[in-house]
Design goal:
CATH superfamily of the largest domain: Periplasmic binding protein-like II
Subunit structure: The complex is composed of two ATP-binding proteins (ModC), two transmembrane proteins (ModB) and a solute-binding protein (ModA).
Protein name: Molybdate transport system substrate-binding protein
Number of domains: 2
Keywords: Metal-binding, Molybdenum, Signal, Tungsten
Number of helices: 11
Radius of gyration: 25 Å
CATH class of the largest domain: Alpha Beta
Family: Belongs to the bacterial solute-binding protein ModA family.
Helix content: 40-55%
CATH architecture of the largest domain: 3-Layer(aba) Sandwich
Structural class: alpha/beta
Number of strands: 10
Largest sheet: 5 strands, mixed
Distance between the termini: 71 Å
Pfam families: SBP_bac_11
């Protein structure tokens, strides 16, 4: 009778080890699932393509996930002021993140410049302009698209360029304004405007013909410092901080620079 008892005992021990291992596996899985958070990010429209490249890298590195909402910096700022449940804000300027910090809606000390944008005058038509300043100086002609300066920082920069060239009054009748720099780009891409001031990153992401383009000298407008900030209402502040740390990392900077932004003077958070 000893053999059956020993066989039963061995089977019992094997099952107990299996059950213990399975429990450990389930606990480990549960630990991973509870530590991985779903972040919500408010992101300036010009940064859409770059954000879509950064998100999978961050998710693979950390296990956290990000759901991004894109729009004009001004409108996203207004949504945050009204209580929208975002964890982080990636603006296309420094003004709104500074305001959120002063209003205690952004976490003090978390704000930093993650990218510096470049402005481009672009047309799908290669023959649209050879001399960009002469093209802008024309008193009549096709419509010219810019972002709405009230909501789009790239629109502010575009108006500064026209001021610097003393062409604001000349160009004003030809202007058509997009709510965001994304809509501004669409005006040109679809032919609703012959040319427009857009972000260099958008043009690099464009899979159509490059057409005519002029990278505007940075001396003609204030720096387009795009700042990020952790929001005070964040449900997952530690995961949000991990995202901001990643955004300032060398790995992220390489992606950001490849897309047409400058990052040389951007300190890590």
């Amino acid at each position: 009778m000893a053999a059956p008892i020993n066989a039963y005992s061995r089977r019992h021990r094997t099952w107990r080890r299996f059950r213990t291992g399975l429990a450990g596996l389930l606990l480990a899985t549960l630990a991973v699932s509870t530590s991985a958070e779903m972040l919500t990010a408010a992101v300036a429209a010009n940064f859409t393509g770059t954000m879509e490249k950064l998100i999978p890298v961050f998710e693979q590195n950390t296990g956290h996930q990000i759901r991004a909402s894109y729009g004009s910096t001004g409108k996203l700022y207004a949504q945050i002021r009204q209580g929208a449940p975002f964890d982080v804000f990636l603006a296309a300027d420094r003004e709104r993140p500074e305001l959120l910090e002063k209003q205690e809606l952004g976490v003090a000390g978390s704000r930093f410049t993650y990218a510096r944008g470049r402005l481009v005058l672009w047309s799908r038509s290669e023959d649209a302009f050879q001399d960009p300043e002469a093209y802008l100086a024309a008193s009549t002609g096709p419509r010219l698209a810019i972002g709405n300066p009230r909501t789009a920082p790239y629109g502010v920069a575009a108006m500064e360029v026209l001021d610097a060239l003393d062409l604001k009054d000349t160009v004003l009748p030809r202007l058509v304004r997009g709510d965001s720099i994304a809509q501004t780009f669409q005006f040109v891409a679809t032919g609703n405007a012959e040319a427009g001031f857009v972000a260099l990153a958008q043009l690099r992401a464009w899979d159509g013909a490059s057409g005519a383009n002029w990278v505007v000298p940075a001396s003609l407008h204030q720096p387009i410092d795009q700042q990020a900030i952790l929001l005070a209402r964040s449900k997952f502040p530690e995961a949000a901080r991990a995202w901001l740390e990643f955004l300032g990392s060398e790995e992220a900077r390489a992606i950001i620079e490849k897309d047409g932004y400058d990052t040389g003077d951007t300190p890590e958070p």
